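Below is a filled-in request sheet from our internal design queue. Each sheet records the structural input a requester submitted and the sequence that came back. We keep these sheets so that new team members can see what a complete request looks like end to end.

REQUESTER: design group, bay 2
PRIORITY: normal
MODE: inverse folding
CHAIN LENGTH: 237
BACKBONE (tokenized):
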């Protein structure tokens, strides 16, 4: 199942993706996971021994739905996705720091970054599966989990919109300094993914780059069930 995962990620049009990340702060990716791989994750949702914790969104007023954080060791396919995307996005992360006149701080390899997380007592894995039933939604938020965080994360849609569910679009809202906020609504296909900022993104203004704070969420699912896979690169306290 994990065969060619890294090759698929490496074969993406990264020149265009990097340009989109710089220009709009996010990038919508083509289908990467096969239907069979998506169904594997959906079936895995009920395998409780795979997870370290389950979060009921309603209980914490995060929204209406449920998500589960994987335990270490991660399933091979998730480990491969996490490593492959980190390798490409660490370059973007350091470039964004340079725009803001800050020193590069993200190493080339994921494990080196996770070693930094460990120094800050962030050792719990953060990749997760999410499930929304009819009426489910996810409030706008950021996934930081501690002092150390990676500036990008990737979310995959695991089933098919307008077939398995309706509604449930991915939402991004940018808080623009001294101005109104800007919203983005993104629809994905089964097996495709979205790269978006974890905290903020640099924007070029008349006097150089400034930061827009970005939050993300999911709009209300109006029918059916929606499943997603989130790849977060930093570990949690």
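RETURNED SEQUENCE:
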């Amino acid at each position: 199942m994990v065969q060619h995962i890294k090759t698929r990620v490496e074969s993406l049009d990264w020149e265009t993706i990097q340009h989109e990340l710089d220009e709009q702060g996010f990038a919508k990716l083509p289908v990467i996971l096969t239907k069979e791989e998506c169904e594997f994750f959906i079936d895995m949702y009920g395998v409780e021994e795979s997870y370290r914790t389950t979060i009921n969104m309603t209980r914490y007023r995060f929204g209406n739905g449920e998500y589960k954080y994987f335990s270490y060791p991660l399933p091979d396919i998730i480990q491969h996705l996490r490593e492959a995307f980190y390798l490409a996005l660490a370059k973007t992360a350091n470039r964004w720091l340079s725009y803001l006149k800050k020193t590069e701080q993200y190493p080339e390899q994921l494990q080196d970054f996770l070693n930094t997380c460990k120094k800050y007592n962030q050792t719990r894995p953060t990749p997760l599966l999410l499930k929304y039933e009819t009426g489910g939604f996810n409030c706008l938020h950021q996934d930081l989990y501690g002092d150390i965080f990676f500036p990008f994360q990737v979310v995959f849609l695991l089933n098919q919109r307008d077939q398995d569910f309706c509604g449930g679009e991915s939402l991004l809202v940018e808080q623009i300094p001294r101005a109104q906020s800007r919203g983005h609504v993104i629809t994905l296909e089964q097996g495709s993914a979205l790269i978006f900022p974890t905290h903020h993104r640099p924007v070029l203004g008349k006097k150089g780059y400034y930061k827009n704070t970005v939050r993300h969420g999911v709009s209300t699912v109006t029918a059916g069930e929606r499943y997603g896979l989130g790849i977060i690169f930093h570990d949690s306290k």
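SHEET NOTES:
- The first strand starts at residue 27 and ends at 29.
- The chain is about 25% helix and 35% strand.
FILED BY: M.R.
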